[in-house]
Sequence to fold (853 residues):
Amino acid sequence: MEGLLNGFAIVLTPMNLLFALAGVFLGTLVGVLPGIGPVGSMALLLGATYGLPPETAIIMFAGIYYGSMYGGSTTSILINIPGEASAVVTAIDGNKMAKRGRAGAALSIAAIGSFIAGTIGIVLLTFLAPTLARFALRFGPPEYFCIALFGLVTLSQISGQAAWKSFIMVGVGLLIGAIGVDVITGATRMTFGLTPLQKGIDFVPLAMGFFGITEVLEAVESKVIQKADVIKVRMRELLPNREEARRSAGPIARGSFLGFFVGLLPGPAGVISTFISYFIEKKLSKKPEEFGEGAIEGVAGPESANNSAAVGAFVPLLSLGIPFSPPTAMLLTAMLIHGITPGPLLLSEHPQVFWGLIASMYIGNFMLILLNLPLVGLFVKVLKTPVNLLMPIITILCIIGAYALNNSVVDVILMIIAGIVGYGLKKLSFSTAPMVLALVIGPMMENSLRQSLLIAQSAGFTIFLTRPITRLIVIVTLAIIVAPPIIKIINLRGRKKHV
Amino acid sequence: MFKSGKLIIIPALLLILGLVGGCGSSAPAPSAPPAQSSPPASEATVGEPQGSEPVAAVSNFPTKEITLICPWNAGASADLQCRALAQAASKYLPQPVVVLNQEGAGGILATTQMVTTAADGYTVALGVIGLFTAQPVLNPDLGYKQEDFDFLISTASAPCAIMVNATSPYQTVADLVKDATENNKTLTFGSPGANSTPHLAGEQFFKLTGVKGQHVPFTGGSPTMTALMGDQIDAASLVISDAIPQINAGTLRALAVASEERVPSLPDIPTMKEAGYDYVFKPSWYLFAPAGLPADVKAILTDAFTKGVEDPDFKKAMDDLNIAVEYKNEADTLASFASQKAVIQELVDSGLGS
Fold:
């Protein structure tokens, strides 16, 4: 507690406050921009921070990271372009809400949910970091595989389309995820001799194509959309109404805790937390049919989950000195170039950095909500931009974003191809969200399965039944598959008795 | 409510930021359309001076900025090395050296793209030893050969090490070998990736010690260390620079390092030779360019980068990364490739991971 108070003393200097504000502001901006994410912007700023005191630089970098989680939902909701994988699920219902004129409510709930989830995450981080880090180490490849499998099962149920269509999309996504150099053997797969494919297909250009470019193509085709999109927005419409606020409370609370714990795990765990949250909310909802048509729970839950997952990712970084995701790897780099090594010794060697960072996250979160709620009004006006101006801007932003990803034209080409394919799929009423999400978790699932079997040696698949955590997840996964038909039968019988 | 004038600010801001983001890391703006038309080549040579400027006026080389290709993502330890080196070498050139990240497939992607890049000295890349040792032996689809390039100098190195969890009963290599042999154990060992230099170093260790090893590849040093710390695997073969923070924190233990001499910052860790197994596996980094650099251009580049490697600022940056500065000239660099490649060829011929 004393440490935390000292941390606040460190943050509450004009310079550190200024850099925290700069960090979260920049984070919000890069979060809003599709393609340009926190990793790229941190990399650009690395060299510029040499002259700063370490805690100041790290406070700013952390601000960029969690700030970007706030901004990520904005383009998802407004123009159906998820800037990052963790905002794909938000687009499903968020964009439908925007089309119904509830963009302001969706953005506000996303910001409020992010704030609450972020704060809950930081409290958990403050008091439980070392314990949780030891817990996270108990997760190895077998556990990762079971979580990915669980994610896959929930994934096939989120999009609201016919199950067979979801399965096809998930299958295609998994196949696309297998392109490139195989992690286990080092062999190249499905590259057709094209060197650029050796690194695999990145999620971002595909998502920008399937969502952004497809949206643009549809707008070009449709003449009505111009009228439909000019929505009059009044101030009171920017805020969620009482009904929406009531419906969001539960999803935000559940998403906060779910996201934090899933966020302790490596790889695309934060992304998985968003669709597990969506799945849970859909199952708990009294009106599951509204999901996919603009249910506010579908924004509140996942948006909270991805924010607390971002905070959860600080646990392994600060306690173990190990980054589990690209943005935390950048944070590690930022610390290293200032001569600070995160890990078990961080707290004793550099308490001012550890506590300064944690305290700055409390304050940064406040700054973000103060920054983001007023911006909602501004962002919603983007929808008033005439389509003939908005669509070219979106196209240019997508192209810049895709190029900036790897300084490579290949990603731009991929994005355009994905846009055209996505347009065709939309005509056939396929939802592409399960495909891009399967692409994200596919490599994690495949690699962890094969790593598990290598570790298991002669034990083979029984490794998944002999470890307590995997056993639990396997049982829950089976229950999800088996329970709905059983519940249906029970319900049918119950109804018959009443009749 | 907001004034309508503010409306324009958002897209404008977004655009500006987008442009900054796009160009900041890709310094030479790709304005000129590529001259060659074969698709991979044109994509490869982003921002290259596509023969539009004749390379005739070499005497006053360089007349514009030099691009240092970093085949790893921004923020990776090799990227930090690139940036430190670019900064240091810029002091000794009339034009700045700028870093361009072209990540993918452990550097194979950028290296393949270098084949079709103009050999005018305006594009240089940082490479890691595996690109010209392990890859040619193990990867039949490789799109480049060593003859496609000119090599300038070696910059730095860090040896591989066999690591265990700090709670492991193995204090020394001998402990590990004794326990595994007596109890006929197969030990699982992690590495940062299949066919990576640390993977092959691990294979060499198990081959020489006669212990049965089961390789488990991960995707980079951090996931490997996580698995080792969580006792998911028995041992790991890692580049020592990645592991030094964990060694200092007391969470992981290095049994021995595969270098000729002990690592200065870890004086207590024996070399493999001292532990009784005489082999060296030492990832090193070097600079290379497309083959056919004009002699004077090559001399200017070699001179500037040599001074850069000797610069105290570069040394300081490498110290922070736990990597040793190790200068080698072109001939010694190629010799180190040859000896390492021979070891790997022999290892593969004797049956890898069998």
